[in-house]
Write a structure and sequence with these properties.
Radius of gyration: 21 Å
Order of helices and strands: HEEEEEEHEHEE
Strand content: 35-45%
Shape: elongated
Number of helices: 3
Helix content: 10-25%
Distance between the termini: 44 Å
Amino acid sequence: MRLVVTAILVLTLALPGCGRIRDSKINPFNWFGRSKAVATQPVESVVPGRPEDGRILVANVTELEIARQPGGAIVRASGLPPTQGWWDAELVAENGGEPVAGVLTYRFVIAAPPKARRVSTPQSRELTAAAYLSDAKLAGISEIVVVGAENSRASRR
């Protein structure tokens, strides 16, 4: 009986302290929220430092999601190329994957189709790319930005 009373007392005193974790980085609900469109500066459409790559920026970044995973997070972005047939989508980290002032920036690059294609519906053209970030890497990141040719999307903590 005494053990039960002690356990109830400890829980009664400990639970209100959990409210302070609300703004903590260890709170899983305090992770990156919904992404939003951000103003885009004109950017070079090829991958910097990799001119042999041949891929260009996706026309529009339509979605950005950061999903918590054991040991880190997965950054997933969707985008719309101008026509059907684009492929080899990848999120290429700028600055060697190091955040600048807490902002990690990815370029959403895609490879052109071998021949001209029709436009068709947005759903049939959509491409998705993802990248994994470890907890150690996330510790220094407060915002993730994915850049396309015509727009960017960002998600902050």
